[in-house]
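This section describes the prediction task in plain terms. A model, or a person checking by hand, is given the sequence of a single protein chain and must write out its three-dimensional structure as a string of tokens. No templates, partner chains or ligands are provided. The sample shown here is typical of the held-out split.
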Amino acid sequence: MQRVRVDAALVGRLAALAAAALFVGLYPLFVSSYKASEFVLVGIYFIAILGLNILSGYNGQISLGHGAFMGIGAYTTAILVSKYHVGELWTIPLAALVAGTIGFLFGFPALRLSGVYLALATFGLAVAFVQLTQSFHFASFTGGGTGLSIGLPKTPYYLTWGIAGGMFCVAWLLLRGRIGRAFTAVRDAPLAAVSSGVSLAAYKTLAFGISAAYAGVAGSLFAMRYGFINPLEFSVALSILLLTGAALGGLGSLEGMIFGALFIQYAPGYGEKISKTAPSVMYGVILLAVLFVVPGGAAQLLKRLRRLLKQAAKPLYSRLGTPAVETAATSTRSEK
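The expected answer:
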């Protein structure tokens, strides 16, 4: 009977993923190119907050500098394309490598920090990134305050969502394995993790590196989407927005991140429609309303729905499971 329940849950999740993939695949066929380009940004934010969720949700390290890593990925693509004429697609893994390496190195000084002090350190990173990219010392590479152009804006819809789906699967496999168990052990009980042989330094820096690599990929796709980047696009506001999306999706849940990405992209627009005079106020009201109704984010809502579905399916489980159990018991007695 337990085996039937587990199989049913697995089939339900696979069916939900298949339905989501089908929706993403067919969506551009039924909407305008503008709406499709908007949905590209949802995919980009989804990739970014997947990485942030690995760091903050599963490893317990709060970051207010994720936008800076996204900017590093964007500038890697822009510099390679505009100055070295590298193909845009080739710059995506390079952006992940550069951002991931910098994130991994940043993880070492951050080892001595935790909680609000770590948040302040990453906040400083986000502030410093904008200043450095605008500085005349690096203007020959970054374009200074004017930014860099890599051509006309594009709508890499299937590329973005194909990468998003692949990176979701990578994160799922990673977090279900030994590394994921070590991440959660470091988050929940660091002393017990150390006594069990888990290296806090190794797994904390690894989480920073993986998270930054995800942000680098998102930043690379962001640069391709707009064809132009500017330092102000990767300010502290973007980092806070990404953390907001991860929290609304539900820290510690991969499936909920899609809802966080949808909120990041569409909630400000709805706030402006409700009140053109004070759109930021309405955006804040929407945010507070969501957090009040579902304090644990979309992940908590999904858990409630699964619980309701399990309760509704109990009669079906009993009908399917009881004969199987009785048959197994009868055969066991006959063998004896």
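For orientation: Residues 267 and 329 are 56 Å apart (CA to CA).
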